[in-house]
Amino acid sequence: MGPAPATAFALLEQIFWVGFDRLAGPVQSRLDGVPLSVAQVDVDWVGEALQGAFSGAVVEQVERLGGHSGTTTRETLKVLVSGNRSLAVPSTFFLKITPEKFSTRLFTTLLGLGSSEVAFYRSLGDRLPIRVPRVYCARHARRGGRFVLLMEDLASAGARFTTSAKPVSLDEARAVMTTLGRLHAAYWESPELDDDLAWLRSPENNPTRGFEWWLSARSNQPALARFRDVVPDRVRENAHRIHAARPLLEAHWAALPRTLIHGDPHSGNLYFQDGEVGFFDWQVVQAGHGLRDVSYFLLNSMDTPLRRSQERTLIEHYLAVLTENGVAAPSAAAAWEEHRLFALYAWIAISVTAATAGLQDQEIVARAIESVGQGVEDLDSFAALDDLVSRAPERERTHGG
User: Fold this and answer.
1) Per residue in 101-114, pLDDT tens?
2) What does pTM read for this prediction?
3) Domain boundaries for CATH 3.90.1200.10 within the chain
4) Are the beta carbons of 59 and 80 closer than 8 angstroms?
5) CATH architecture of the domain covering 160-400
6) What is the b/e burial string over 242-266, where b = at least 16 CB atoms within 10 angstroms of the residue's CB?
């Protein structure tokens, strides 16, 4: 089966399972312990979900304190627990659950976002050398995309959040480079990537690749139509070439050293606590080259003039952290060339968000696509792409360039 029929089949299959699960979910959720909606997160469910961390805790009351819904539904819960005070059960928790809107749920299910994040917290949540939220319950259904995470309430724990609406400061960006360096160094070319962590998405292990490539290519023109006024002319005129060259780009990136990467490390997915940076929203965690995270953060989360003046220094700091942690890091020159190409991935990612109304606030998306587009222009990433195409064998050049 070719890429187009396979993508169509996957789409139809998931439409069936998401639709079936919306009908059968109320029954299935009682069997597998994965609520269909926030309404099903009641005293009995929370009491059972907390037993793994707080055995013997008796939940008397659950109150919803408010939340929002985007690519996931999120809610803060206030929980009243009776019984043994020595258990020190927190009074509030953060709930992350399947989005209620059908189209959004289908999108997250097709990309495996909920199941990936559940697998991350089950496998790695307490093993990383960086801060991540503590998770007390992580589950997903076999089909239909239902998932649930009952997590530490970081706000009550004193965390300070940055947002996608406001660029980070230089000190914050440097702290993020330190944290990414520590994370990537811990799994740089690790045998675990082919063993305990073989479930991670990778170039060879990506069941949603066909759909992802199709979606990003189809998103390019709608994204440009919605935000054409903030995208540099050269990027607007050449963005289609990024998607045409996607196979060649992915083959290049697949040949680079690998580590565990967050996959979506922008300023809306990080927090500061006790002088350290933490990351949440691990829905697209995968095995890949560390500079993908670095470039993605720099282009999405920094004010353009500050990025222009500091990105070389920040990349060099990241490389120094890798070296300090025992990694044979690439040279600054080699890292810069990869940064130019990974800027094209940042465009691929933002074009999908920009094309789909409702995934993110329009003002935030406009700032992000302007920032990424300007980064692609500043880095002369199309010239880097031309160079990559020129070095490819004729067969790959014709197919991918």
Assistant:
1) 777 777 788 788 89
2) 0.91
3) 160-400
4) yes
5) Alpha-Beta Complex (3.90)
6) bbbbbebbbebbeebebbbbbbbbb
